[in-house]
Design goal:
Layout: E1 2-3, E2 6-10, H1 15-28, E3 32-38, H2 39-45, E4 53-59, H3 61-70, E5 80-86, E6 92-97, H4 99-105, H5 112-129
Antiparallel strand pairs: 1-2, 2-6, 3-4, 4-5, 5-6
């Protein structure tokens, strides 16, 4: 499913397991995880409730740098991000920005790196959300 440049994939696993599987897949693919942000923990610290919701920020300079060399403004959207959350019905989702959409947003056309990113993210999402 794609909405406003977002790709969302339902998961067969819990929110925590999906996030752990995603982080392992990212690392196995040779990418770096820069940050893991637990939005639910932040909400709890503020006295608020939020269903399990965590963000991973990750990437690979070999993929992102050529895009920023082409159009530096894409740096606002890089490194890549993936949100893993549980919805009101208890369903777990992995959502990320579509690299094609990001490239169009920043006026980058025909960059081969974008196709590689699209494929890599699809593979990562599948590994994180579905059993082999």
């Amino acid at each position: 499913m794609a909405t406003l440049g977002l790709m969302s994939v339902s998961s067969d696993f819990s929110q925590k397991e999906t996030l752990e599987r995603l982080q392992a897949a990212i690392t196995a693919a040779g990418m770096m995880v820069f940050a893991r942000i637990d939005h639910a923990a932040g909400a709890a610290a503020a006295g608020l409730s939020l269903r399990p919701t965590e963000l991973l920020i990750f990437g690979n300079a070999k993929a992102g740098t050529p895009l920023m060399q082409s159009e530096q403004s894409i740096g606002i959207d890089l490194p890549l991000k993936a949100l893993v959350y549980e919805d009101a019905a208890g369903k777990v989702w992995l959502t990320y920005n579509d690299p094609d959409w990001l490239a169009r947003r920043h006026g980058i056309a025909g960059a081969p790196t974008v196709a590689v990113m699209v494929s890599a993210l699809k593979t990562l999402a599948t590994k994180a959300t579905h059993a082999p």
